[in-house]
């Protein structure tokens, strides 16, 4: 049996950058981030598209590919497309980013294309969303990647069940879910229900931890107060067993978002994230 592999999701190595900032770009050079991840033990790497655009200016796409290859990174994840269901100016802006992301996925040989739901939780129609999801999934499949949507408890896809309903309605085999245990815990989805998700529909998993009490809004809590795996209240061993039962084989994403994590030098942050997750998975 091969050893479990781990993916440093984009925020885990981003340094002083966060999803609630207007400018979400990492202040760190991509080389520093990738080397920190690899030296910690990660063999897979997640990147925000805005950071990829910056890195391309410095290294070119060929240089980025070499950077990943030289550091043993064999699985690349790119995020996060939103408004893929919208129309008007929002859709036009989203489509421009979509085009760039699809091109980058193909050029880098990236395997995971991560998208978000509607965090405004506006009324939506399943058949419309399923059609849009199917089109985007086919585009991702066409460049060799799988499409994963991440349910968020404050969005229109609040649970893995909501997400799975969309994915199954779309029907494309390359589409599925990114299951973040922070969101499943805060959505009150017990680990036993994760075991019932078809393994073929699990595109990615993200591990982390948190205190039992939510401070502020769910979004504020998830951005500022996550904890390292094993340092909070989540039933991570139960979730890991359930996801294995469902058929997930990795790489296991580790997504740590917190003020404390952002304040650490990137090598310390990456090492702590890897060490705490590996202690539970292996």
Structure commentary:
- The chain has helices spanning 30-40, 49-70, 88-108, 126-142, 160-170, 181-186, 191-194, 218-224, 236-246, 259-262, 266-281; strands at residues 6-8, 44-48, 75-81, 112-115, 146-149, 175-180, 202-207, 252-254.
- It is globular, with a radius of gyration of 17 Å.
- It has 282 residues and is α/β, with parallel strands linked by helices.
- Strands 1-2-3-4-5-6-7-8 form an 8-stranded parallel barrel, surrounded by 6 helices.
- The protein has one domain: Divalent-metal-dependent TIM barrel enzymes (TIM Barrel, Alpha-Beta Barrel), CATH 3.20.20.
- Helix 1 (30-40) runs parallel beside helix 11 (266-281) and helix 2 runs parallel beside helix 3.
- Helices cover 46% and strands 13% of the residues.
Q: Biggest β-sheet, characterized?
A: 8 strands, parallel, barrel
**Beta-strand residue fraction:** 5-15%
| SSE ordering | EHEHEHEHEHEHHEHHEHH
Top CATH class? Alpha Beta
Structural class category: alpha/beta
Parts with pLDDT < 50 across at least 5 consecutive residues: none
Record the SSE blueprint.
Elements: E1 6-8, H1 30-40, E2 44-48, H2 49-70, E3 75-81, H3 88-108, E4 112-115, H4 126-142, E5 146-149, H5 160-170, E6 175-180, H6 181-186, H7 191-194, E7 202-207, H8 218-224, H9 236-246, E8 252-254, H10 259-262, H11 266-281
Parallel strand pairs: 1-2, 1-8, 2-3, 3-4, 4-5, 5-6, 6-7, 7-8
Helix pairs in contact: 1-11, 2-3, 4-5
């Amino acid at each position: 049996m091969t050893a479990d592999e781990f993916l440093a999701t984009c925020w885990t190595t981003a340094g002083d950058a966060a999803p609630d900032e207007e400018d979400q770009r990492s202040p760190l050079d991509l080389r520093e981030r990738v080397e920190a991840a690899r030296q910690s033990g990660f063999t897979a790497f997640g990147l925000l598209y805005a950071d990829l655009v910056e890195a391309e200016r410095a290294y070119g796409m060929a240089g980025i590919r070499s950077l990943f290859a030289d550091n043993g990174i064999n699985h690349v994840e790119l995020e996060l497309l939103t408004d893929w269901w919208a129309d008007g100016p929002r859709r036009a802006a989203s489509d421009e980013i979509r085009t760039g992301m699809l091109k980058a996925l193909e050029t880098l040989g990236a395997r995971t294309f991560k998208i978000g739901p509607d965090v405004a939780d506006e009324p939506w129609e399943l058949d419309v969303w399923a059609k849009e999801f199917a089109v985007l999934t086919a585009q991702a499949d066409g460049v060799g990647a799988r499409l994963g949507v991440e349910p968020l408890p404050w969005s229109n896809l609040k649970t893995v069940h909501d997400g799975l309903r969309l994915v199954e309605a779309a029907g494309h085999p390359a589409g599925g879910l990114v299951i973040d245990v922070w969101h499943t815990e805060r959505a009150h989805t017990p680990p036993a229900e994760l075991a019932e998700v078809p393994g073929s529909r699990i595109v990615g998993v993200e591990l982390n931890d948190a205190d039992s009490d939510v401070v502020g809004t769910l979004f504020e809590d998830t951005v500022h107060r996550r904890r390292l795996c094993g340092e909070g209240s989540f039933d991570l061993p139960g979730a890991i067993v359930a996801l294995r039962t469902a058929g997930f084989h990795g790489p296991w994403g580790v997504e740590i978002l917190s003020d404390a994590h952002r304040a650490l030098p990137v090598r310390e942050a990456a090492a702590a994230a890897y060490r705490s997750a590996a202690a539970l998975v292996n």
